[in-house]
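Hello Y.,

Per our agreement to keep a running log of every chain we model this quarter, I'm adding this entry. I've kept the format consistent with earlier entries: sequence first, then predicted structure.
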Amino acid sequence: MTGITLKQVIQEIGPLDTAAMEAAARHSDKLTKPPGSLGRLEAVARQLAGIFGEPIPRLGRKAVIVMAGDHGVCEEGVSAFPAEVTPQMVLNFLQGGAAVNALARQTGADVVCVDIGVNADLSHPALVSRKIRRGTANMAKGPAMSREEAEAAILAGAQLVEELAAGGCSLFATGEMGIGNTTPSAALLAVLAGIEPAAAAGRGTGIDDSALTRKQAVIRRAIEVNRPDPADPLDVLAKVGGLEIAGLVGVILGAARCRRPVVIDGFISSAAALVASRLAPRSADYMIASHLSHEQGHARLLEAIGLAPMLHMDMRLGEGTGAVLAFPLIEASVRLMAEMATFESAGISQAAERR
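Predicted structure for the entry above:
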């Protein structure tokens, strides 16, 4: 991907293969079950057929890409945790001690941890270093980053997906780490969906009422100071977004470009998905929403993209935890298509089954 531009990445995202989706639907209707009785699993199977261009695709390796970055807006007191926790948690991921690591081990997925904007010097054999800068600037006082930095972070995410896909990874999930990152995520939702900060911003790491009021005011001020253009998603991302969010935009666009499904995690990941869908509307066809976060505003984010969550678990941890939980369901949709008998092969009267 050396030298490729964001415009080229977007242009290379193709439509789903409708012929493969129709073939998958016909095969599904021949299986020993009432039509549509497997609900969302059947819809996911059709979507995967369209993504891979095969009625019954084979899924290979799985990876959750955890993008990490710091946020200058933390100096406004918008989080219950100090910014120093970001690099500490990155090391926890790398040592295998975070929730997403435990769930990834259970589901047989790789955890790929990326430093795209941590405000510290990190070194670990398993760390993927793609640092654009040491954290964003305080968006309440000016742009979080430049337009060029936002685009560089997007391209870094897209390039990583291309590398992993070339190595046999066929299913991706979005994860993130960045103290304070629900604030830029809520700002992205407010601007791109045209809703009030009070409706977009939630409690994040568990802030109290006074901190929530302050957080909402900070988002209003950031929007007033930066005047992001809702018609220009890259402008919005640069002015009130985050580096790990931009990296996830790249992961999503890169997955779509490589014709790979990407499982969207919670609030922060969905903010990245909203930006991606505004930059490249076709990219939404490659997204699978894993769960509905307990964080206020998440339902509005999914609605703005046109996605419906698979799970309702009242989770709000992030890291990619909800997305990894959805991996077995996605794999189940393909296994059912590949392994269930048809009415004909099982010697069952299809007409009798449907009565």
